[in-house]
Amino acid sequence: MNFEAFMESIKKHIKEYLPESYQDAQVTIREQQKLNNRYMGLTVIRPGDDRIPTINLTDLYRQSYENPRFRITDVLEQISQIIQREPERFDVSRLTQYEEAKKHLFMRVSNADKNAQVLGGVPFVEREDLAITFHIAVEETEMGRASAIVTNRMMETYGVTRNQLYKDALANSPVIAPVKINNLGELLGRMTLDGMKEMGASEEEIRDAKERMDEANQDNPLIVVTNETGIDGAVAVFYPGVMDQLGEEIKGDFFILPSSVHEIIVAPDDGRLSYSELKEMVTEINETQVAPEDRLTDEVYHYDTRDHVFEKAEAFTERKRAKEQDIGKQEPVKETAAEKAVHPKRIKHKSTDMEL
To answer: Where is this region: Disordered (predicted)?
Structure first.
């Protein structure tokens, strides 16, 4: 069954799996556009409904079709349960009154060019080719955090500026989604050790493996930055003070590799890898290992801990080269008094030649 047939079947039969109260509902399937993602969404709207879930049929088809036991009846039953789930009641003032909304304000980061259409209607802050947008957490469910993006119209209703939104989101994001920083080697090591325990490895085998990994981690200074949920955590690197904190841990400047919208990887600028090598690596990983909706960018960034500058690594390389050239053009050092004593000034004699 292809995707078109899948959607048609869902639209045609979904009411058969819903109670009588849904028989007059309007069933609609249309394209939905969100940050980093477009999908076909299903809505089933009864007269008087004020909160209507939009069900992502694109993801549902992908997940279902990958299951060898896929049956359309199972999908219809799953959709029916989602539609009938009693939504958690929330304070509407979260969306209508800014004093309440800002308590639930947080940020996400996405690729500015790829999300130009969405960004046309919302306030955002640019950081190089990235866009930081503002969102209001509505509720927490077993499927994750439900949220609403702040639009230009909402901002006008609130009577605040983009700068005020940014200031409040910077303050509140670390509260709603605290930053989480891990050494990549240690993170992979813990996952490996947990797997060994589940497989029934002996304590001696686990201890030996841990010693080998600890030794290897000394030469693997890569750091992963995300948030506590691991969802939309790449923006955590822009939280106040996080880049300077990373610089202290690494003890110097560092490169920022955008692993996905969910996390970034930090690598020390210690001369081991060039900007071009890192960019090539990021591009390859994005093309082969990261889902299109999770990709952030193919760019590599750099943080200068001395000047506190976040920029594209290419721009940093050019700025560094320009600085070195400026140093080479510095004026010669003037002679000191002692040097003048050793090398006395030559006396200039007036010419006695006369012009005829």
So the answer is: 317-356
Q: Any idea what DSSP says for residue 66? A: T
Tokens representing residue 339 in the block: 């040097």
Residue 337 has pLDDT above 70, yes or no: no
Rounded Cα–Cα distance for residues 155 and 173 (Å): 18
Is residue 68 classed exposed, middle or buried when 0-12, 13-18 and 19+ CB atoms within 10 A define those classes? Answer: exposed
**β-strand pairing of 144-149 with 130-141:** antiparallel
Q: One-letter amino acid identity for 316? A: F
Q: Which two tokens stand for residue 41?
A: 């969404």
Contact (Cβ atoms closer than 8 angstroms) between residue 78 and residue 17 = no
Q: Which residue, 192, 190, 184, is CA-closest to 257?
A: 184
Question: If you average pLDDT over residues 300-316, what whole number do you get?
Answer: 91
pLDDT given for residue 348 in this prediction: 42
Distance, C-alpha 301 to centroid of its chain: 13
Q: One-letter amino acid identity for 105?
A: L
The residues near 232 (Cβ < 8 Å, ≥ 6 apart) are 108, 109, 177, 261, 262
pLDDT classification of 327: cutoffs 50, 70, 90? low
* Residue 3 near residue 64 (C-beta atoms within 8 A): no
Least confident of 72-76, 141-145, 321-325: 141-145
Q: Quick one: which of 176, 155, 166, 35 has its CA closest to 104?
A: 176
Q: Which two tokens mark 213?
A: 């990994």
- Which carries the bigger pLDDT value, residue 140 or residue 305? 305
Compute the average pLDDT of residues 14-36: 84
> Residue 15 corresponds to which tokens in the numbers above?
């009411």
Instruction: Give the pLDDT confidence of 193-207 residue by residue, as tens digits.
Output: 455 555 666 776 656
| Spatial contact of 246 and 254, defined as CB atoms under 8 Å apart | yes
Helix (H, G, I), strand (E, B) or coil at 228: coil
Strands 223-227 and 254-257: unpaired
The mean pLDDT of the chain is 79
